[in-house]
Amino acid sequence: VKGLTGNTFPLVSGSRSSKTFKPKKNIPEGSHQYELLKHAEATLGSGNLRQAVMLPEGEDLNEWIAVNTVDFFNQINMLYGTITEFCTEASCPVMSAGPRYEYHWADGTNIKKPIKCSAPKYIDYLMTWVQDQLDDETLFPSKIGVPFPKNFMSVAKTILKRLFRVYAHIYHQHFDSVMRLQEEAHLNTSFKHFIFFVQEFNLIDRRELAPLQELIEKLGSKDR
């Protein structure tokens, strides 16, 4: 799988399926969005995540949200890819985030009525759906001067709300595997960056964040 900056990440294909999600939405080098991504990476390197998520001066909010949404998709894709062999129909027959939260899948077009399905199936639906949105030039224009659609912000909010559910599932159901793989620092940093970003622009309703509320408060208090 190619990351945004062209780095190649190995994706572990679980025994359940050899299908891995391959984000095709590489941001082209030399484009303005690529420059924005480089800016994001440079500020992330400073270690101040609250500052790193802020809209750079003079930049378009939609474009900033688009670049970061693509980046979070690639990060989550990679993180989930490391634990797919532990997330199976048998181990995760429902898509849950702890005992109190269960998610049913609907995309509004192919599946209108929410269906109960296993976590790997749900995440497969979810990541394929997100990738289709990211690949749609009318929603995520990559060419300079092509305007973002009027509904862009609501599309981005739905994508981020759903991507959060993958983090929530990994933390609640697979954190022991993450620790065995020594991936917890990577997961925590990625999630902290994600949370600070959605908080900065008020992109996910607080109720949706409830499955990881304690963790979110802990991450926030460390940064004050």
TrEMBL record:
It comes from the Eukaryota. Keywords: Kinase, Metal-binding, Transferase, Zinc. Zn(2+) binds at residues 87, 92, 169, 174. Signal peptide: none annotated. InterPro entries: MOB_kinase_act_fam, MOB_kinase_act_sf. It holds the Pfam family Mob1_phocein. The keyword Membrane does not apply. One of its GO terms (molecular function) is kinase activity. SUPFAM superfamilies: Mob1/phocein. SMART domains: Mob1_phocein. This is MOB1A kinase.
